[in-house]
Structure formats: structure tokens, C-alpha cells
Amino acid sequence: MASRKPVNRPSVKHPSHKHPLHIFKAQEEDEIICSGCELELTGEAFKCTKSDCDYFLHKSCFDLPREINHKSHPNHPLTLLHSPPYESNAYGCDACGQYGSSFIYHCSKCQYDVHVGCAFLPETVQREDHEHVLTLVFMSPCKGREGMVFMCDVCKETVSENLWVYHCKVCDYGTHVHSCAVYENHVTEKGREEEAVLEALRIESLRNARMELENMRISNKINNSVIHFGEEPRYHWVRK
């Protein structure tokens, strides 16, 4: 019996990885993490051609622009780096406050760092339990208001004044930018934005678990403590 010839699939190179990559169809049950954005891999993707190398990329991560101008940091462009530029090999995202250890949008002048997933968050979202559209803002609504901190209206946790939030100015209602922003079954108006948000929600619990591990690896820890205030108002006076 004649042996089958191996299928020659076209391969491509990406500057983030030393080996060639080929197209790969990821299934949700595979539970694979993208080596770029560190989120769950589903749909059209790329994987390393080496059988012993677990390097995977979303197609969207493969195609990320090398430089972007972002409203959160208007004075300088943000450059795509394939690994953090720090000795710790990790960074704290200035958008959501969580850690990352792979692709990053970075400003070398200001040491401003954003997850690639956060960089493309939709500017507006709609919660089913709130009548108004929530708008992405790049700092806490309490910033500059001495003695006050902002609390997420969904989880009742404090939000650092420099982190991004989704906010309703009419009602002064706000949420964290990831899991608290929308329901998992919510449908956004733009298809690409819908995919990004839902993907972030599916992996949120995994990222939270990994955060503790990253916390131990970083010598210069970022103060990202969370205080629970139960049912207290989201504005909480801080006594000096």
C-alpha cells in the first residue's frame, strides 16, 4: 500500500516568533491561550509548525498594527512590542490594572502600557439593566475630587482613579472595563467589537487567577488592592 504524503500547508513568519506559523482552526474545547493577547483562542488562528512548540496567535493578533494613536494617550503614539520591555518580563496594564506578559502597546517616553485587547475596546457598550449607553472614559470620574474614590456599580469594588471605566454621565453610573461592563449574552452593535468583548469575558476568570502568580514574579509590585464596601455608595469618603 502506498503511503500518504504529508500535506504541505503554506507557512508564514511573524516577528514575534522564531519558527514559521501555519493556519489553524481553534475550537473552544481546545482551551488554548493566544501567545499574543493571552486570551482564549477560538476561530481562525495561527500555530507554530514545530510540533513541540506551543505558540499560537489569533489572526487578529497576527495582524495588529505596529503603531497606534490612542485617545487615552494623545501626546505620543503607542508601539506594539511582542514582549514587555522590563526585566520582570511582565507589566501592569494602565487601562484595566491587570498584569500581562506578552504583546503590549507601549509608550517608551511615558512608560505607558496597554494590553492589546484593551487598546481596541469599544467606545460604548449597553448593559441590559441600564437605560443609557455607557461610554469609555480613561480615568475614574472621581479623579481630582479630594477624599473620594469611585466604586463599580456592578461588583461594588473600588476603581483606581487612573484606570479606565465605562461610565454614564447622566446617572453617574460606572463599571470596570471587562467583566462588569456587559453581560456575556449581550450583543454589541459592531461585529468586531462584539467578538473582542465576549472573548475577554470568557477568559476573565482565568486571567484573575493568573494575576496572583504574576504578582509573585514581579519585584516592583503595583498597588492594585481591592477594598469591598458592600452596599455602600460608590463614592466613598476617605478619612485622612
Automatic annotation (TrEMBL):
Region described as Disordered: 1-20
Pfam families with a match to the protein in the record: C1_2 (PF03107)
Biased composition (Basic residues): 11-20
Keywords assigned: Repeat
Domain of life of the native organism: Eukaryota
UniProt keyword annotation of Phosphoprotein present: no
Domain DC1 per the UniProt entry, residue ranges: 15-61, 71-119, 130-180
Family annotation (PANTHER family): CYSTEINE_HISTIDINE-RICH C1 DOMAIN FAMILY PROTEIN, PHORBOL-ESTER/DAG-TYPE DOMAIN-CONTAINING PROTEIN
Name by which UniProt lists this protein: DC1 domain-containing protein
Organism, as annotated: Eruca vesicaria subsp. sativa
